[in-house]
Amino acid sequence: MDAVGRAVLESLDQGIAVFDARGRLLFANPGARRALAGENGAAPDPRRALLAHHGRAVPLRDGEMELGEVVFLRGDGAATLAEQERQAILGALAATGGRLAAAARRLGISRTTLWRRLRAYGEPFHPGAAS
Question: Topology of 81-120 in CATH?
Answer without folding.
Answer: Arc Repressor Mutant, subunit A (1.10.10)
